[in-house]
Specification:
81% helix
Length: 415
C-alpha cells in the first residue's frame, strides 16, 4: 500500500489515534480529584509531601519512560510500544480502588507513569508521523485536546461518583473500561506509522546537520542537543517543565486547598475538571493557530496567562470556589496556548531521523515538572501554607515566559 503524508490522506488512522488518546488521558483523570483526598481522609496522612508523593513517583517514572520511548519506538515499532503501555496500565485502576495502604497507591502511580510515558508518547509520535510537517500544530492540538479533554471529563466524573458513593472504589471503575478498551483498539485497529517517518526523512535535505549526526545520532547526543545545546530546544524544554510544574502543583494542592476553604467535593471536582478541560478543548483552536502565527507568541503569552491564573486564585474578594474556578480557567487557557506550540516547536527543530528521540527528551523534561511541582508544593506548603505554593508557581511561570521571549527564535519547520 502506497503511503502519503497528510491529515486528509490519513484521517481514519488519525481519528482512531485521537480516540485512543482520549482513553490514555482518562487514566490520568482518574486521580485528579480523588487520590489526594484518599491520602488525607482514608489513610490519615498529615504530611503534604507524603500525600504528594504519588505525583512525584508518577512524574519521575513518566519522565524517564518518555526518555526511552522514542528509542523503543524506533527499535520495536510505535504500535508495539503503544500496546506495551496499555498492558502495564492494566493493574492501575484495581490498585487505586482496592489497595489497602498508601504504598499500593504509589505502586499504581509507578505503573501509571510507565503506561503514560509509553502510550501517550506513541500517540504523539504516530500523529506527527502521519501528518507531515505542514499540519503539526493542528495535529498536536487535536491530540492534546482529546487527551486533556478526557482528563477533565474524568476528573469531574470521579468527583461526582466520590460525592455519591465514597472515595473508593466506585470512582475507579471507569479506569477498568479505559484500559481494556484502549488495549483492544491498539491491538486490533491501530497501524504502525514508522514508515511515514522514514518517508518524511527521505524527503528532507540534510541541512544544518553533519553526515554523522544525520545518520547515527545516539540518545546522548540527542539529549544534549534538546536539553541545552540548541537554544530553541532548551527554551522549549524549560517551558515544558514549568508548565507541568503548574499541573503537578495543582494536582496535589487544589483538592486540599479548596476542601479546607469550605468548597464541597463536587465543587472541587469542577475546579479540577475545568483546568484540563479548557486546556484540552482550547487546543483545537491553538493548535492550528500555532501553524498560522508561529510557535513563540503562543508559548510566551501562554506562560503569562498561566501566571495571571495563579494570581486570581489568591484574590480574597472572590469566594474560594469562584477564585478557584476562574483561576483554573485561566490556567487552562494558558496551557492550551503553549502545549501544542511546544510539541510543534520540537518537531520543527528536530530532524525526522532523530525527532522521536528528541520528543522523548523534551517530554522527559516536561514531565519531570510533575515531580518538581509536587515537591515544591509540599515543601512550600509545609512552611508557608498551601496558597503560597500557588504564588511561587506563578512567579516561576512568569520568569519562564520571559526566558522564552529572550532565547527562542521562530524556526520554519522542515518541508
Amino acid at each position: 500500500m502506497e503511503i502519503k503524508l497528510g491529515l486528509k490522506e490519513n484521517w481514519k488512522q488519525f481519528t482512531l489515534l485521537v480516540l485512543v488518546n482520549m482513553l490514555v488521558g482518562g487514566m490520568v483523570g482518574l486521580e485528579r480529584t480523588v487520590v489526594p483526598l484518599v491520602g488525607t481522609e482514608e489513610f490519615k496522612i498529615g504530611s503534604d509531601i507524603v500525600v504528594f508523593s504519588f505525583i512525584i513517583a508518577f512524574g519521575v517514572v513518566k519522565a524517564f519512560t518518555n526518555l526511552v520511548s522514542g528509542v523503543l519506538a524506533d527499535k520495536y515499532t510505535r504500535k508495539r510500544v503503544l500496546i506495551l503501555g496499555w498492558l502495564v496500565g492494566l493493574p492501575v485502576p484495581f490498585l487505586l480502588a482496592w489497595g489497602n495502604s498508601w504504598n499500593w497507591i504509589i505502586i499504581a502511580n509507578i505503573l501509571l507513569g510507565i503506561s503514560q510515558g509509553l502510550a501517550w508518547s506513541m500517540t504523539v509520535n504516530m500523529k506527527i508521523d502521519l501528518v507531515g510537517p505542514k499540519k503539526r500544530g493542528l495535529a498536536m492540538g487535536l491530540n492534546e485536546a482529546a487527551g486533556y479533554g478526557a482528563v477533565g471529563f474524568t476528573a469531574l466524573l470521579t468527583g461526582y461518583l466520590a460525592s455519591r458513593y465514597g472515595l473508593r472504589p466506585a470512582p475507579f471503575y471507569i479506569g477498568i473500561f479505559y484500559t481494556v478498551a484502549g488495549l483492544i483498539l491498539s491491538i486490533l485497529v491501530i497501524r504502525d506509522t514508522r514508515d511515514y517517518a522514514r518517508l518524511e526523512s527521505a524527503q528532507v535535505a540534510q541541512q544544518q546537520i553533519t553526515e554523522e549526526k544525520f545518520h547515527k545520532p545516539d540518545l546522548l547526543w540527542v539529549f544534549r542537543e534538546t536539553s541545552f545545546k540548541n537554544k530553541n530546544l532548551f527554551a522549549v524544554s524549560q517551558a515544558g517543565l514549568i508548565n507541568n510544574l503548574n499541573d503537578g502543583m495543582s494536582w496535589g494542592v487544589f483538592p486540599l486547598l479548596f476542601i479546607s476553604a469550605g468548597v464541597s467535593l463536587e465543587g472541587v471536582g469542577w475546579i479540577k475538571a475545568v483546568y484540563p478541560f479548557v486546556w484540552g478543548i482550547g487546543q483545537v483552536i491553538t493548535g492550528p493557530l500555532a501553524d498560522k502565527i508561529g510557535r513563540k507568541p503562543l508559548i510566551v503569552w501562554g506562560m503569562f496567562v498561566q501566571a495571571i491564573g495563579h494570581v486570581v486564585i489568591g484574590l480574597e474578594f472572590l469566594s474560594p470556589f469562584m477564585s478557584g474556578l476562574i483561576g483554573s480557567i485561566l490556567l487552562g487557557i494558558g496551557t492550551a496556548m503553549v502545549y501544542p506550540a511546544l510539541l510543534a516547536a520540537v518537531s520543527d527543530t528536530a530532524h525526522p531521523s532523530w525527532r522521536a528521540s528528541s520528543l522523548g527528551v523534551y517530554r522527559f523534561w516536561r514531565d519531570i515538572g510533575y515531580s518538581v511541582g509536587a515537591l515544591m508544593a509540599g515543601i512550600v506548603a509545609s512552611f508557608f501554607g498551601l496558597i503560597w505554593a500557588v504564588h511561587i508557581a506563578g512567579i516561576i511561570t512568569f520568569l519562564s515566559g520571559l526566558l522564552v521571549l529572550i532565547r527562542m527564535k521562530e524556526k520554519k519547520p522542515y518541508e
